[in-house]
Amino acid sequence: MMLSLSCTDTDLPSPLPVGLERFSNRREMARGGNGVLYSGFDQVIGRTVAIKMLLPQFKSDYSFRRRLLREARVTAQLEHPGTVPVYEIGEDPEHGIYYVMKRISGECFFSVLRQIAKGDAEVVDVFPLRRRIEILIAVCQTLAFAHVRGVIHRDLKPSNIWIGNFGEVTLLDWGAAKVWGESRLDDANYLSSPVRGLGKAQSGSVAAGPVAAGPVADSRAAFELSPLTPAAQLLGTPTYMSPEQIGNRDLDERSDIFSAGVCLYEAMAIAEPFRGRDQEDTFDNICSRQPAPPSKRSPHRGIPDFADEIVDKALSKQASCRHQSMREFIADLDLLLQMVGGA
């Protein structure tokens, strides 16, 4: 959107609007199970912003309010080029808790991968293997910053990675984030980690051998859960969870490294390494089976053998066998980038 002089030279509104009255032309952009995202025009500063709040039926629920406020404050404190700036946190008499942030443009990385999987030649040209790895490096730089600040994302996946119109890479949705030192129970009604098999019957035994990873598909319909998630559901997205996240064990930055390894596999091979017949089957794949190396899974995509080593290490079942820091993982990705060249 072009900058308009009419938004810069006029006087302040009188009387000065407060709360959500400050934002005109509010339009819904997206909604999840418990939250809704609007765009709106800030009449005081003169810019379009994004506004996140709870759906009406949840606006008075203490637990949902607490989680949204926590998400806003975690996001606000992670001031980094790879995060969305938070402008304001407030409470409206009608709509309840809300927070205001920069409205970003572009498309999510998941959409990019899905179009590549469909054989869209134009998207393949814009996002070759090298560019896709660069995007993951940028995301991991943001995660490295968050880890230094004591924050684990816990829901890293391509649909939470936003590619801007000018190449900027933003990691979204810190609603499931874990701040080190907090209790594993965020409050009386929410589990900070899933309990494997909760509400799901075992679907049968799983044969040994590599997982037959399929092409990238829209996993949101089957598995994605809102970041404002009640107990007896999962925090995070099952296809990207680490074994310790599934097992409800203590997490550190190596859990995000596992999720980053899943994203790397998907970005290179255009295939999901662990997706099973259902959620329980997916959990079994993550906890007990190693996927086929990405270069073998998609031999036509020019993936170097070194990429297999990186993925194999990042996706180790034991956290102690993975890269021990995000910086270590990034160092391997930088070496991989040198091998890929302009491919």
UniProtKB/TrEMBL annotation:
The family database entries (SUPFAM superfamilies) matched by this protein are listed as: Protein kinase-like (PK-like)
**Which domain of life does this protein belong to?**
Bacteria
Class in the EC hierarchy, top level: transferase
> Which InterPro entries does the record associate with it?
Kinase-like_dom_sf, Prot_kinase_dom
Q: Which residues form the Protein kinase domain?
A: 23-337
Entry-linked PROSITE patterns: PROTEIN_KINASE_DOM
What are the recorded GO MF terms, alphabetically?
Answer: ATP binding; protein serine/threonine kinase activity
Keywords of this protein's UniProt record, alphabetized?
ATP-binding, Kinase, Nucleotide-binding, Transferase
Which Enzyme Commission number(s) are on file for it?
A: 2.7.11.1
The region annotated as signal peptide is: none
Question: What's one Pfam family here?
Answer: Pkinase
Name it: Serine/threonine-protein kinase PknD
